[in-house]
Automatic annotation (TrEMBL):
Keyword tags: ATP-binding, Nucleotide-binding, Transport
Domain of life: Archaea
Entry GO MF terms: ATP binding; ATP hydrolysis activity
Domain ABC transporter, first and last residues per copy: 6-241
InterPro entries, alphabetized: AAA+_ATPase, ABC_transporter-like_ATP-bd, ABC_transporter-like_CS, ABC_transporter_ATP-bind, P-loop_NTPase
Protein name: ABC transporter related protein
């Protein structure tokens, strides 16, 4: 039987506030296999970002655990890279320097080699020639491409994305969505699985192999839906629309829980 790349096991989490604990996640269980693109969807404020932070090792669950290729995640690790909706680039560094930063922990590599790797990933995301540009000189879509290059340059096993297209205009988002799957899953990349948080169901159907729907307070998994459509996907296909309708109705049920 194939082993999961990522395993979320019985994860529960509460925020500790002055008014007492606020339970956010309860008994979350799911698995992500090799070359799977998994999306987590839920009504706003349900705990999607919190779950992503737990997977990233940025927060420890109160109970349960997350395994990455069988090993428990106990803190941040270069094996997991994260992409945020606000790009999170350093404005005083060039595109190339921002990407190079992902390799700062690779003391085994010379500066020249690190620079070469960074250049290769900028090229991969379509930004060859923009190495010396500062973030302020780049469009939103280009900034997100730099962030993707930086995540890939860290040579992670899993890529985590928190609403990666939310701050882009519709046309730019559409273009990047069309490219992201092949940008991330190819022979130049070490990424074996993607977990994305989104509340845009169109993009979720377009990109995912599996969708996890959270609902309730604290949130638990309401449904897990596999999207069995070949790629590239056409948003106008009847089957695409069927999946979309199904997710909308599951999400509206989760709103009532
Ligand atoms: N640092 C914090 N302290 C206390 N409560 C928090 C904290 N961060 C988040 N919360 C609460 O935890 C719940 C889940 O938040 P989270 O950001 O994970 O939800 P989300 O599903 O990602 O929301 P959105 O779709 O709006 O981004 C919310 O009710 C939020 O108010």
């Amino acid at each position: 039987m194939k082993e999961p790349i990522l395993e979320v096991i019985d994860v529960s989490y509460s925020y500790k506030t002055e008014k007492g604990p606020v339970p956010v996640l309860k008994d979350i269980n799911f698995k992500v296999y090799s070359h799977e693109f998994v999306s987590i969807v839920a009504p706003t404020g349900t705990g999607k970002t919190t779950l992503l932070k737990i997977i990233a090792g940025l927060r420890r669950p109160d109970s349960g655990k997350v395994l990455l290729m069988g090993e428990e995640i106990r803190g941040p690790t270069p094996k997991l890279a994260m992409i945020f909706q606000d790009f999170a680039l350093y404005p005083w560094l060039t595109a190339l320097e921002n990407v190079e930063l992902a390799l700062f922990h690779r003391k085994d590599l010379s500066k020249e080699v690190r620079r070469e790797i960074a250049r290769k990933y900028l090229e991969l995301v379509g930004l060859g020639g923009f190495e010396d540009y500062y973030p302020r000189e780049l469009s939103g879509g280009m900034k997100q491409r730099v962030a993707i290059a930086r995540a890939l340059a860290a040579q992670p096993v899993v890529l985590l994305m928190d609403e990666p297209f939310a701050n882009l205009d519709a046309i730019t988002a559409e273009g990047l969505r069309a490219e992201i799957y092949n940008m991330v899953f190819n022979e130049e990349s070490t990424v074996k699985a993607i977990v994305m948080v989104s509340h845009n169901l169109d993009e979720v159907v377009e990109l995912s192999d599996k969708v996890i729907i959270l609902g309730g307070r604290p949130a638990s998994i309401m449904a897990e839906v596999e999207i069995k459509l070949s790629r590239p996907r056409n948003t106008r296909d009847i089957e695409f629309q069927d999946y979309l309708d199904r997710l909308y109705s599951l999400l509206s049920i989760s709103l009532k829980v």
